[in-house]
Amino acid sequence: MTKSLLELREPETADVERIRELIESTLTASYALSPQQIEALLKVDFDVERLAETFEASDSVTLVAESTVNGTKTTVGGIFEGEFDVDGGSGEVRWLFVDPEHRGGGIGTELFETAVGRLRKQGAERITATTLEANREGPQFFEQFGFKYTDDRQVEFAGEPIVEHVYAEHLTETETASESDSEGNSDTNLPNTETTNGVTTATADDSKQAYISLIEEDSGTEGSFFVAYIDEDHTDQFGYYCANCGSLDTAMDNVGRIEVSTAAMSVQSARMKPTTIRIYRLQIERATCRILLV
Question: Domain 4-169 classified CATH 3.40.630.30?
Fold first, then answer.
């Protein structure tokens, strides 16, 4: 009877070639990438020198999962790479690969939970995770740990643009409100709002009341934008609340663009995805409030 034991440890220089082999097989089996894109990833992100530097970096959390079969045969079956931002107090899951031949034994879960625990020990209060859009299995994996999709960002390999999905730990309304207070975003710093029993509201120019969702936030350089709702249960969307100027004056046109306009505001908008109302990037300038939808 074959017995297999799993050990998580920090990678060594001698593991580099096996790790590159593992990554290539994973990219080939689980990612909708061209051979040129896979080659570019291996060359840019996973060349021998870059991996060696990552292993030694003080802000990096890197683990490999090594399987021992019948006490003799060992092989690296998975690798995790994460980064800790000392200044921001946050951690990011950059890569998690499990060799297709070693799946089904919980390697991915063990790597993820152990490495995220190490990021927290280093001081990470918030954890985000990124995965390429081409990863057929990434979204389901992160969602099982309570991570929610928050954003997209674009990177380039082999001269071709590739989209990365960004996931973040889901916070409850109470947790987000507490976090916002600690960062100086209490209701006293949100113009034209009132907070009663944890419920934050704002009043529009026509005297209608809107309920501000503090867990649906996109940050800009001078403040944040929060989704506003008609009802306290946050089921019917009112629009958006600007934490920089306190405005609720928003509208969407017939081609799916959202605009924000107040007396002292210049507006620039771009097309949104037709199935979702999501601000991907917001830029708030001191004299104007500007939303860039990309």
Answer: yes
